[in-house]
Amino acid sequence: MTAIAIKGTGLYAPGEAIDNDELKQLAAIEFDAGKIEEKIGVYRRHIAHLRGLQETTADFVTAAAQAALRAAGITANEVGLFIVATDTPEFITPATAIVVQGRLQQGEAWSMAFDVAASCASFTMAFDTAASLLLTRPHIRYALIAGVYNMPAFIRPGDAFGYSIFADGAAAFVLERAAKGQPSAYTGSQMLTDGTQWDYIGIYAGGAKNPVTHAALDAQQYGLQNLQPLPGSRNVRLWPMVVEKILARYGVAADDVDHYIFTQINRSVILKVMEAIGQPPEKTHCVMDNYGYTGSACLPMAFHEGVQSGRIRRGDRVLMVASGAGLSVGSNLFIY
After folding, report:
1. Last residue of a domain, one of 123, 153, 185
2. Looking at the structure, do residues 319 and 206 belong to the same domain, yes or no?
């Protein structure tokens, strides 16, 4: 295990929450609210532009990072590493992490900043990368990692599916090398990738292959696109397999994990997975009821809420599993 501690966490969701009835009015869409609530588990979410807020990805990260820094009791100038995990960046380039570093450190600094883009599994990659860099870079005392989602900015008008599921939000961790006597430690990760599944759901216009043109706009070939249906059983199959693999790799029994946090895409799927791995539902934590689906941000948001509520305590062992389009799956095992 690596002596890495989470020193502080922070969360930001823009504007007042929007429930399903109000969403229908604000977005001028129609959908089965009962199904979304009962099966998916989404009752409310935050969407900046539907509240008339001129806030985007970098704004969300900055606010969450500032909250995490306050919780950690340090200043931004003490941070030597900034990683933003997202597939909805502020710009294609420069990296959102660089923009955030500039806002927080107010100019040139001896720090490192970059983004990690692995769809909705991005935060697990950022966490693992930051832990490794802290271990091998003794001059870096603190790292700030943030997961952020701004998918509503890419949803086309009238997309009932997109608006009913996806939401805005960010959460950040301040990491440090743990002091002697602290129970905190980063155990490790398990990743899985299948790039042959790239053509299911994503933002396919705006990059080098498909520039945004008038023709693409007229054909509605921009923003969030569903090219083909996602397999309904994908996460029910994948997540137990990933849990088994990471626990076996590090010699940890399933019963010895105190909290299982999964991508907050579907509450019913999470409960099925908990049953499949033989763990009680009390060991998992869902926040999609209040925040909708926040992609790369949902794991740190769920963890933050668990800490704030007192459910997750120092010394608890936590396993986070995330999957994203592409296909990318990541996991982190650690002691808080």
Report:
1. 185
2. yes
Cis status of the peptide bond prior to 327, with omega within 30 of 0: yes
Q: pLDDT (tens digit, 9 = 90+) per residue, 152-182?
A: 999 999 999 999 999 999 999 999 988 777 8
Helix, strand, coil percentages for the chain (3-state, nearest 5): 40, 25, 35
Cα angle 277-282-288, degrees, rounded to a multiple of 5: 95
Cis bond upstream, residue 94 (ω within 30)? yes
On the 0-12 / 13-18 / 19+ scale of CB atoms within 10 A, 150 is buried
Note if the pTM is more than 0.90: yes
Domain count, the chain: 2
Per-residue confidence band for 95, with pLDDT thresholds at 50, 70 and 90: very high
Q: Which of 208, 207, 271 is nearest to 239 (CA)?
A: 271
pLDDT, residue 231, reads 81
Q: Write down the residue that tokens 């029910």 correspond to.
A: 236
The domain in which residue 66 lies consists of 4-185
Distances (CA, A) of 256 to 253, 260, 335: 5, 11, 11
CATH of the domain at 142: 3.40.47.10
How far is C-alpha 30 from the geometric centre of its chain's CA atoms? 27
DSSP state of 38: I
Considering the domain architecture, whether residues 175 and 38 belong to the same structural domain is answered as yes
DSSP 8-class letter at 309: H
Asked if 198 and 65 count as a contact pair (C-beta separation under 8 A), the reply is: no
Specify whether 139 is located in the same domain as 215.
Answer: no
